[in-house]
From TrEMBL:
Bilayer-spanning residue ranges: 425-444
Gene3D superfamilies: 3.30.1360.180, Alkaline Phosphatase, subunit A (3.40.720.10)
Keyword check for Signal: yes
Region annotation Disordered: where it falls in the sequence: 452-475
Protein name: Ectonucleotide pyrophosphatase/phosphodiesterase family member 7
Signal peptide range in chain numbering: 1-17
Keywords tagged on the record: Membrane, Signal, Transmembrane, Transmembrane helix
PANTHER family xrefs: ECTONUCLEOTIDE PYROPHOSPHATASE/PHOSPHODIESTERASE, ECTONUCLEOTIDE PYROPHOSPHATASE_PHOSPHODIESTERASE FAMILY MEMBER 7
InterPro entries: Alkaline_phosphatase_core_sf (IPR017850), Phosphodiest/P_Trfase (IPR002591)
Biased composition (Basic and acidic residues): 452-465
Record field: compositional bias (Polar residues): 466-475
Amino acid sequence: MLWTASLCLLWASSILCVPVNKQRQRLLLISFDGFRWDYDHDVETPNLDQMAKDGVKALYVTPPYLTVTSPTHFTLLTGRYIENHGVIHNMWFNTTTKEKKPYYQTQFVNEWWDNGTLPIWITAQRQGLKAGSLHFPGTASSYQGEVAMMRDVEPRLYNYKNETAWRENTDKVMGWFRDQDLDFVSLYFGEPDGTGHKYGPDSPQRREMVKQVDRTVGYIRSSAKEHGLAEHLNIIITADHGMSTVYRNGVVEEITLSKIPGFSFKDVSFYLVDYGPSGMLLPKPDKLEKVYNALKGAHPHLHVYKKEEMPDRLHFAKSDRILPIILWADPGYLINGYFPVQFNKGEHGFDNQEMDMKPFFRAVGPAFHKNLEVGPFETVNIYPLMCHILGIQPEVNDGHLNATKHMLVTSDSTKGTDTNILQNVFTGLIAVAGFLVLVFIVMISHKIVKNRKEDKRSDSSKHLPDNNSVKQTSF
Ligand SMILES: [Zn+2]
């Protein structure tokens, strides 16, 4: 009897505690580098428009500061502000040896990326999912000895604007989902950033490149269907930063540090300038105040901050890698060192409050509402959203699911989970009630049988000798 009861209870509790058997959600995160939030305003974008009808469109999103490629992409993958994840620049540097590595070479410097914060690929894999990445910044590095299960790093001198290669890369990723059974993939396209830099964000070349992006969005969605993935695949498309026109040809007074009275590169032991509108300086011992005082207020469009005085809203101070003096210029301006060496017509790296730095955001798939336009949010919030869709426990991060959960439907992903929990609880309660009824019936039956036996015994005991009667009583 007790053994049966224990088994019943174990069964009932196992139903109550069973892991949520939710429908499996897959997720593809796509970045089109430098796709500004309003790039679809002056170009026909039928595929992006269709995606907005079939899913969610945000007015814009706000990237973290510093608005450059590797740091902002690592925020997408980790949900951490740049000062917290430590990938503070596109360029790895060493202030002692004065060595610097450009963007592509920095992709292969493990210690630059593997800095205590795990990208979502590793977290997903540690929780039993399968992840991949194609060309996404950070893919080449390993993290605590682990890499994405499927990964593809672009070769040096890669042509980032070849539309045929874009389609091949798309099909490769869809093949990973279908044939390798991946749950999450991040996919990177290097445009329209390159075209925006070269020709400027207001150029016809940029508009043509946006059309190419739009065609590719259509191709991505049709490729998902052809690979039989449309029903379970969620697609998020966003970017790392926007783009702003650089003022030139004598229109403005350019910022060239060497021309600023009282400033000398002799007082600086290491510097990162000539890299768009941002810069960092490491003054020589006892020269910090001199350098700071010379630069502060020297140009009306140059912002100069000591690291510890950086505005909190920029979240760009805490990392040990950030140098003691930080510089940034207003939109339209660049920071030159000895003399101008930058000739791009478009740049990014400006304050993330500037509208020109805001990327676009679209999402479609079973987890998302249809035909919903939402207000802006910070890109740190994309990470907890992705973890939620995938059903994994996020690492410590700076985002909040509350900022994005209104984009999610209630049946398939999020509330699907709630519904399943309720179903499990209901089933469990039914099981417990059934068990109690069973126990009640068994007890009643036992009692009836016992009473009948006792009645029989009392009848027969009249005919038994006294010693047998004693034994029966002690039974
Ligand atoms: Zn970029």
